[in-house]
Specification:
- With about 350 residues, the protein is of the alpha/beta class.
- It has 2 domains: about 5-55 and about 90-150, Immunoglobulins (Immunoglobulin-like); about 155-350, 3-Layer(aba) Sandwich (Rossmann fold).
- The chain has 9 helices and 15 strands.
- The protein is globular and about 60 Å long.
- This is Phosphatidate phosphatase APP1.
Length: about 350
């Protein structure tokens, strides 16, 4: 038995003990739905079941003093951190019954060991666009989940990274998830200049194109990232995040492998769609996208890479320059552009990717 197997076994025992104790304390399962996606043929309904304290109101506003004034900034930050702490250190409910009602079909499943479910509903009958499905779980309140149904003949789709691509991080990579989870309000996070306008133009030229946000960030940060995307006028779309913790092959999950697998899945789920892949040169996006082009040269319309500043490179990986040179010429006939912000990327796009 390897170290990762031992860690996973310990994690399961600790979590099972936590579920029992919290159930005795009056906690109950709660469904956290994530945005799903699919075509007229099939749809993915995604979410997670966690234990929730019925007395904790995560949506409650920050308290005010007796004069009606907001509490001090220090107190507000403390409250935000407390909310994020509860989001970050969760008690997942594994092997739990879940029922999904999507269009004309109902599918029953069970959560995996980390409380997640990803239900594939065939021949659902839902119309194109954003739709709602119903999710039930034993002992939990019923919720609705959003799903994006894309036309089968959608010619173009967009895949976007998040950290350092649309969001200025200015943090070492090791702190990304902790910061996003603990500080659930996004007013301190800034968008990369011009990226929202770049995406707007892409969608003007490709109406109906689905937009996916593919990130190595943890699912714990889902609500924070959705809020950021909405507040800064980025297009609404499903998020493809990852889970923390050990895997059968190691103590930590591979972010690069996560992105490769999700890209392959999108190529399978949308067989008639070409993709515009957008990322940054802080870590592995250029290599990941180049591999996708080499394996599926007919499925990638073009690649756009946002170039980090020297300071951002240091925070990302410890050196002042990119770990990978961004190709500016065609690879397998696929145009690739790069620029420091969205405005410059849009200028390059007008020249190269049409």
């Amino acid at each position: 038995m390897g170290i990762s197997d031992i860690v996973r076994a310990v994690e399961r025992r600790i979590n099972a003990r936590g579920v029992r104790r919290k159930t005795e304390a009056g906690w109950a399962p709660e469904i956290t739905p994530f945005r799903g996606y699919g075509t007229s043929n099939r749809v993915h309904v995604i979410g997670r079941v966690l234990m929730q304290d019925p007395e904790f109101d995560d949506e409650a506003p920050i308290e005010v003093d007796e004069d009606g004034n907001p509490r001090t900034q220090v107190e507000q930050v403390s409250t935000q951190a407390q909310r994020g702490y509860r989001q970050f250190f969760t008690i997942q409910v594994g092997d739990h019954p879940v029922t999904v009602h999507a269009g004309r079909h109902t599918v029953r499943t069970r959560t995996n060991g980390n409380g997640y479910f990803d239900v594939l509903v065939e021949d659902h009958g839902l119309e194109t666009g954003w739709q709602e499905v119903i999710v039930e779980a034993e002992g939990a309140e019923t919720v609705t989940a959003e799903v994006l149904i894309t036309a089968d003949d959608a010619p173009i789709g967009i895949v976007s990274d998040i950290d350092d691509t649309i969001m200025v991080t200015n943090l070492p990579r090791a702190l990304h998830a902790a910061y996003n989870s603990w500080f659930v309000h996004t007013n301190q996070r800034k968008p990369v200049e011009g990226m929202a306008e770049f995406y707007t133009r892409l969608l003007e030229e490709n109406p109906g194109a689905p937009v996916f946000y593919l990130s190595t960030g943890a699912w714990n940060t889902y609500e924070t990232l959705c809020t950021f995307i909405e507040e800064h006028n980025f297009p609404k779309g499903p998020l493809l995040l990852t889970d923390w913790g050990p895997t059968p092959t190691g103590l930590f999950r591979s972010g690069q492998e996560h992105k490769k697998v999700q890209l392959r899945n999108l190529f399978i789920d949308y067989p008639n769609t070409e993709w515009i892949l957008i990322g940054d040169n802080g870590q592995h996006d250029p290599l990941t996208y180049a591999d996708a082009i080499q394996e599926h040269p007919d499925r990638v319309k073009g690649v756009a890479i946002r170039e980090l500043t020297p300071t951002e490179h240091v925070l990302s990986h410890g050196t002042t320059g990119s770990l990978v040179d961004v190709e500016r010429t065609d690879r397998e006939g696929t145009p690739s552009i790069s620029a420091p912000d969205g405005h410059a990327l849009l200028d390059e796009y007008r020249k190269v990717i049409r």
